């Protein structure tokens, strides 16, 4: 601590020496200290305009600290402990995708990058109180116009230099709150064990209010998801330590969100890899005895959920809007018993849709019952789908769909039943501008519908019974549901028409 007793006129040599020692410790980064002020009577030091830059991508700097103050925590001297109090005043952290990828590609472990040694070069005492005042954090992904931006960050962590603690004992109080994306508010309160090995442990209660979701679009777009609008509210508990991982969501509510899964031909192969990776991650979470994931209540309210298929010509979008979804008592170990899922909405914005499912724990794989129905959807709203698969459109009609499915012990049993009522494929006024060939084709499809029609009820119905093995016994529940939606719904609507059309041509 010799630098603490040097006269103020010697601050510049101390600044250069400190900067040199910090840069000698760091790997992949460098710092610059604008000015240093020594406070010999208070045994403190203040750094002004300290900047941290990544060597590979130096502009902009990763962090700028307008003022960093380090001093002795005098209150702890009463307990004969010589420890430090650190204050970061108005720090600005900035990371973009290029810098993040460089860090991810660096084989040097974080513990070997010299961060601890660099901090010790600022002040020789161990930190016991760490405070952030009016901080700002920005992450820029692929869209610079929609950064993830946190402002007015206030944080305090105290009692950091406590003795080594027992498992799940967190001696250091932690408090933080911030404004998120200019509109939402985040707050955490809890405790941490900063001395746990091999990494610190933390246990906090978190509350997020009014978080705009559209800012996450550039990130989730890499998973073929497109998000617009939407606001998130969350309250829950997070515990992350060397021997335990807990995420307990007491309430997660998303309102007014539009979310699409976008399938394209160029990304088809990548989508399969992503789904496989997601399934494997889900299985790992389920099987890991040290991971505890619980959801007391999850809700989507007034949302618009869709599937966009750009791999077909023409493309189409099928959707539920507005939709309300509830998930109650879900956990990876189903410790609270079966989880319940309910859904209500409008298919294509018009037909009544509802579903209910019960999920149970089973070591042999997915175990759930699912019952769903869609009723009285105006078929004109589905014309993009009909054009894509059947090369025709309809002028009138109502579409309904019913299914009951049970998945247990690697098997699936149930049925799917699409129902077409009062369908009219060809309309002279609607199709006046179409070619003669298109008109003849649509008349033929309309004729097939008439052949299948129950003349008393004026409906076309086909039912497919489903029975057999799930497929891959290691499939996750969500993978199975995804395949059911694809195979039992999309592929069940038009094959009946295809088969009957083929038979008509042969006869």
Shape: elongated
Count helical runs: 10
Mean pLDDT: 81
Low-confidence stretches: 447-458, 495-507
Rg estimate, integer Å: 30 Å
Q: Please count the beta strands (DSSP E, at least 2 residues each).
A: 22
Tell me the span between the first and last alpha carbons: 99 Å
Report the helical percentage: 10-25%
Strand percentage, roughly?
over 45%
* Main pleated-sheet profile: 22 strands, mixed
What is the structural class?
alpha+beta
Topology:
Blueprint: H1 11-25, E1 29-32, E2 35-39, E3 44-54, E4 63-72, H2 74-77, E5 84-89, E6 92-96, H3 97-105, H4 115-122, E7 127-140, E8 148-157, E9 172-180, E10 184-193, E11 201-212, H5 217-220, E12 225-241, E13 244-263, H6 268-287, E14 291-309, E15 316-331, E16 339-347, E17 351-359, E18 368-378, H7 383-390, E19 396-408, E20 411-424, H8 436-452, E21 459-461, E22 464-469, H9 477-493, H10 495-506
Parallel strand pairs: 5-7, 6-7, 13-14
Antiparallel strand pairs: 1-3, 2-3, 3-4, 4-5, 4-6, 7-8, 8-9, 9-10, 10-11, 11-12, 12-13, 14-15, 15-16, 16-17, 17-18, 18-19, 19-20, 20-21, 20-22
